[in-house]
Amino acid sequence: MHSPDNSGGITRISERTVSRIVEAASLTVPGCVKVDGGLAGRDYPRFDVEVDDQSRTASVEAIIAVSWPSPVTSVAEAVRATIQEWLRDYCGLRPTAVNVITGPVVGERHRVTQAAIDSAPRNPDLTPVKTRNRATISSPTVSDSIELREIHTAPEQPLEKIHVRRPMPEVPVTVAKQQPLRPVQAPKKPAPLAPIDYPRDHPTRPVVVTPHSLRRKGGRP
Question: Where is this region: Disordered (predicted)?
């Protein structure tokens, strides 16, 4: 379901949400009970819900479990009427078709009477929306304006003349004439290198040291 176009946005109620609302509506009817089928069984009540967002309508097919003893037909009719009212009040949808099929019958200790079914409310007990109290709007108060003081300025003074020095005469700059370049002569061939004589190495001679000479150096006879 979508909200009106002039609401500044779109609100959509999914079919899964509508199915939960339909289930809650059916269980408010005396005689309609909830059955847990476990792993292999089926749960009741079961619903197949289709929602048309464009026309804002809904169709529901419900399979319910009914307690016994009870007026089974009256229970199914009450479930159908309750689902229709809850779709209008909770979802804002127009129910086009609500089919209720009676499934398993579950034995209960207490008998469900026709009076109990008739006295059960068809419309949901909606909680009113509470808003905060509006704050009292007070007019803004403005303080009296302060009297402005007159601003006095000094009278304009005559402008003083500015004396500018006369431009100084330009001093002539004399540049010497360009002198002719003198040629630089370099020797065509480098001078030959003079040989350098140095003494050749002399062959080394062996030095023989005798024990007699060692004793003389040590100062012993």
Answer: 174-221
CA distances (Å), origin 63, targets 79, 113, 173: 10, 21, 121
DSSP count for the chain of H helices, then E strands: 4, 4
The DSSP result for 73-119, as a single string, is HHHHHHHHHHHHHHIIIII--EEEEEEEEEEEEEE-SSPPPHHHHHH
Work out the pLDDT band at 213, boundaries 50, 70, 90.
Answer: low
Listed in order, strand segments (DSSP E) in the chain are 32-33, 46-52, 57-68, 94-107
Q: In the chain, what are the domains?
A: 13-109 (3.30.70.1350)
Residue type, position 96, single letter: T
Q: CA 174, 178, 179, 181 torsion: positive or negative? A: positive
End-to-end CA distance of the chain, in Å? 138
pLDDT at 86 exceeding the cut of 50: yes
Mean pLDDT of 104-122: 93
Asked if 69 contacts 39 with a C-beta cutoff of 8 angstroms, the reply is no
pTM, to two decimals = 0.55
Per-residue model confidence as pLDDT tens digits over 3-25: 555 556 677 889 999 999 999 99
